[in-house]
From TrEMBL:
Gene Ontology molecular function, alphabetical: sodium channel regulator activity; transmembrane transporter binding; voltage-gated sodium channel activity
Region (Disordered): 267-295
InterPro entries xref list: Ig-like_dom, Ig-like_dom_sf, Ig-like_fold, Ig_sub, Ig_V-set, Myelin_P0-rel
Polar residues bias: start-end ranges: 270-280
Organism classification: Eukaryota, Metazoa, Chordata, Craniata, Vertebrata
Primary location: membrane
Keywords: Cell membrane, Disulfide bond, Glycoprotein, Immunoglobulin domain, Ion channel, Ion transport, Membrane, Signal, Sodium, Sodium transport, Transmembrane, Transmembrane helix, Transport
Protein name: Sodium channel regulatory subunit beta-4
């Protein structure tokens, strides 16, 4: 079944009862499936059909599983446990919740003899318990595990259980939802060039694993970046913007001067018109005004 996106309605995140553990067989009793998912919570919105069709779909909180069951119940209602176990089930893959990131820059450079921070963070909307992590090094002629450790829960810092190189220091912290398991590699050598991979395994998500890789290049010296072209472009853009602002100011000044000039011309015309009427003795002018008669 391939449901249309526009035929689904999002609901608020909440636990649902229609779930199977990852790896469970289709013949597993329904009450076991319900019990297995009771403690899990979905981190993404659940979707149900706006109008109950002949078959429906429900996103389960179990990692990587969709539970698709014919004859879905009423609108906005979790998929009910069927009385008839002969109804068909289909498992479809969905996006996993465990994510591992080494940042935006996956290629980094460092000078020989210095130290470098290799970042790594993880996230899981299901939470984690006894989480396992490790850093591995891989080059064309070597592979080794650099450091391994565990994190008991969100309130605990990472604990190192194995370290292959004394130059490596774990600097991350998982307290306050930082979920940081970064390492620092000191006294770099040219032989340290290669791929460094951060692996994470979460038992709370049925030992779901995820990893991210960063490539380190150790060099003799860092090349200076020539910013001449960038500076020229910025200067040209700044000059054009400044010129446009100057043109707008001059335009406003000209409009203001023309407005004042027109107002003065109107005043002069009104004044000269009054003087002409007085000199020509036109009606309403001052020439017609007679002095008051003496008694």
């Amino acid at each position: 079944m391939n449901p249309q996106r526009n035929s689904l309605l999002p609901l608020k995140s909440r636990p649902v009862s229609c779930s199977l553990r990852a790896g469970s067989s289709l013949t597993a009793p329904w009450h076991r499936a319900q019990s297995a998912s009771a403690s899990l919570k979905t981190c993404s919105s659940m979707y149900f059909w706006a109008r109950p069709p002949k078959s429906g779909v429900c996103i389960t909180p179990s990692p990587g599983i969709w539970l698709v069951r014919p004859q879905l119940g009423t609108r906005h209602h979790p998929c009910p446990l069927p009385r008839d176990r002969s109804q068909g089930l289909f498992l479809l893959p969905v996006t996993l919740s465990l994510e591992v990131s080494v940042g935006k820059a996956t290629d980094i450079y460092a000078v020989n003899g210095t130290e470098i921070l290799l970042p790594c963070t993880f996230s899981s909307c299901f939470g984690f318990e006894d989480l396992h992590f490790r850093w591995t090094y891989n080059s064309s002629d070597a592979f080794r595990v650099l450091i391994e450790g565990t994190v008991k829960n969100e309130k605990s810092d990472p604990k190192v259980t194995l370290k292959d190189d004394d130059r490596i220091t774990l600097v991350g912290s998982t307290k306050e939802k930082m979920n940081n398991i970064s390492i620092v590699l000191r006294d770099l050598e040219f032989s340290d060039t290669g791929k460094y991979t951060c692996h994470v395994k979460n038992p709370k998500e049925n030992n779901l694993q995820h990893h991210a890789t960063i490539f380190l290049q150790v060099v003799d010296r860092l090349e200076e970046v020539d910013n001449t072209v960038t500076l020229i472009i910025l200067a040209v853009v700044g000059g054009v913007i400044g010129l446009l602002i100057l043109i707008l100011l001059i335009k406003k000044l000209i409009i203001f001067i023309l407005k004042k000039t027109r107002e003065k011309k109107k005043e002069c015309l009104v004044s000269s018109s009054g003087n002409d009427n007085t000199e020509n003795g036109l009606p309403g002018s001052k020439a017609e005004e007679k002095p008051p008669s003496k008694v």
